[in-house]
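Lecture notes, unit on protein representations.

Consider one protein chain, 146 amino acids long.
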Amino acid sequence: MTEPELKALLLDDPAWGQAARRLMSIPGIGLVAEAWILVATSNFTTCDTPDQAASFAGLVPRQRQSGNVDSPRYIGHAGHARLRQVLYLSTVTALRFNPVIKRYYERLMKRGKPGKVAVIACERKLLHLAWTCVVKERMFEESYSR
């Protein structure tokens, strides 16, 4: 399927078309990524909160523990692997073009977080932004704050 066909397919449906337009407003999320995000999350109808969406994608730290011995938390093989891959690629692009994600990444790096940890946190933030834009029916605004 070519990109014009994919775009036409997404924008033809009223509900999915609105969601696709909102995701297009987020710098870093391209056409293929937005299609994957919408399809994998069923247009965010299965996730009541952005934290549920992050857990579904597998972007929530899991803890492995045996007895009284604590082990470090990790992002493992749980969740939707393809969605995680798409979010990773979108995040790498967003680190260059999305000022919100870029500032967040720089702030994490200044606090001494390892690069991979910071990127995964940015993936989660990007998914939160996507959930908010689609579910709250808003276009992305760089200046928007809670």
